[in-house]
Write a structure and sequence with these properties.
The protein is mostly helical and 135 residues long. Helix content is 88%, strand content 0%. It has helices at residues 3-20, 23-30, 33-41, 45-71, 74-97, 99-103, 107-134.
Length: 135
């Protein structure tokens, strides 16, 4: 499976959940007990819209990259794979370093998201370089 399609398949459920599920449900899925208690006390409207925006923009971007990856060759394919690599590695960096991810997210979910981002990012970067070498 090419990197862009893998990206869509592995992250698609996350994008859909963030876009379609009510905030109360996403909090139960993503947040640890302390963050859930704070959310119950005072709902975070900014986080609600940010998660939904992430789902919409991330989902649309993943679909666009998957379609482009099916039709691109040469330098264009390297750009698609480079974009997939960048998005996943940058997201992995945020997952690793951002205070919300460290302090408020369920750590087992954080580690799985981190692993996916690093794995897809490394695969896409490898395919990008291989495409550039063949070019």
């Amino acid at each position: 499976m090419d990197p862009a399609t893998l990206n869509l398949v592995l992250h698609g459920g996350n994008y859909a959940a963030c876009t379609l599920l009510p905030r109360a449900v996403t909090v139960k899925i993503y947040d640890n007990a302390a963050a859930q208690a704070r959310e119950k006390e005072k709902p975070n409207k900014e986080a609600d819209v940010a998660w939904k925006m992430f789902g919409i923009v991330g989902g649309a971007g993943a679909v666009g990259l998957a379609i482009a990856g099916k039709h691109a060759t040469g330098g264009e394919l390297a750009m698609v794979n480079g974009a997939v690599a960048f998005c996943n590695l940058a997201a992995a960096g945020l997952t690793l370093k951002h205070d919300f991810m460290k302090d408020d997210m369920r750590q087992e979910l954080r580690l799985s998201i981190l692993g996916l981002g690093l794995g897809i990012g490394a695969y896409a970067a490898t395919e990008c370089v291989k495409t550039l070498i063949r070019k």
